[in-house]
Amino acid sequence: MESKNIAVAGELTPSKTIIPIIQRLRELDREEKLNFKLNKIIGLYHGESSKNLLNSCCDELYSIGEGRRGAKNSNPKLVYLISKDILKVFNALKGKNIDLLITAGNAGDVRKAIVAANILRIPVLHIEQDIYNPIEVISHANMVTVPSEEYKLFLEENYHLKNVKNIQGYPMAKYVENYIKEGNLISKDEICDEFGIRDYILLVLGGDLKDDDIEPLIRSVEELNLKTLIAPYRFDRNFVKGFVLSPNIKVLDQYVDLLSFMNAASTLIYAAGMGMTIEAGVFNIPSLKIEGFHKSHGSVDLARLLDISIVRIEDIPKAFENLHELNSGDLLKNSEMAIENIVGLINDFDFKKKSGFKSTRKIWNQRKAFR
């Protein structure tokens, strides 16, 4: 039986999408149910957080750079940095007989990985969740997967992609369920005892916010007059603390185990994208998603499907009065189906088509609206 080496690339949240797929591939490999022998899985990590995640399921790990979110670089400097990181990916993949690269997400790590794989003529399977703002080089992936038939039609009609498969769900939901089942959560009692509270709101400051949003957001939450823990996440902790006036609100350390704090919270208010929306769905926690500067987004579609209210900052107090249970429905069941569908595609190993530069140009033009 032929053996194959697979590489995976991703930032933090996309890695959570990829991991359950790797786990299922390894399980089927042990049971000798694959059409090939799984030799090595090589992880290309983008930042220490994704390194820590991928370390548990990859045989080898290679850094392909750090995130540059919020960094102010001139265009020549940016071209230099991206080229440098593409070279890192190229060197990580070269000479290792990689048969397939799996990517997920829409950040710079996907661009670097797909470009390097194309140079080395390595087939690429890309897992897409945000059809409105994909990375333009997915047009040079051999196959692109999406979570619904509606999304498949959108990519085909709007970007002229020719190689789109509907996997019918979000693999990341299974990662969250496994994280809970494996006993990784900090207990509710431990969190509540540490902060001297029982019921609290978890407020997560993610990528859908700008610096100017923080003060009005905190003022709006202070109107609730309820115990609140703020996860600063993408914002400097001291910057956030500087706006807090109410003794009901405490700001957590820069990076905490958000899943544990979400599990212990009574309510979630968040300004983040797909990853946190999936997590809210798995925990089935009453949630408000803050309307971001991107009105069309995959996470907005999923939030509506889960019956999560999307609100403006100034409308949080009023929306809070109407909080309700989520409609998580078949999120986990569909996640398992999606994993099986992706594994089936990998097992068939029919990665030949690419969409090409016409699609690249259409996606590039669409991304302008998100800059």
Task: Give an overview in words.
It is globular, with a radius of gyration of 21 Å. By secondary structure, it is an alpha/beta fold. About 45% of the residues are buried. Helix 1 packs across helix 14, helix 3 packs across helix 4 (about 110-120) and helix 11 runs parallel beside helix 12. The strands form two sheets. The chain has a seven-stranded parallel beta sheet, sandwiched between helices. A six-stranded parallel beta sheet has the order 10-9-8-11-12-13, sandwiched between helices. Helix 1 links the parallel strand 1 (about 5-10) and strand 2. It has helices at about 10-30, 50-55, 75-95, 110-120, 150-160, 170-180, 190-195, 215-220, 235-240, 260-265, 275-285, 300-305, 315-320, 330-350, 355-365, and strands spanning about 5-10, 35-45, 60-65, 100-105, 125, 145, 165, 200-205, 230, 250, 265-270, 285-290, 310.
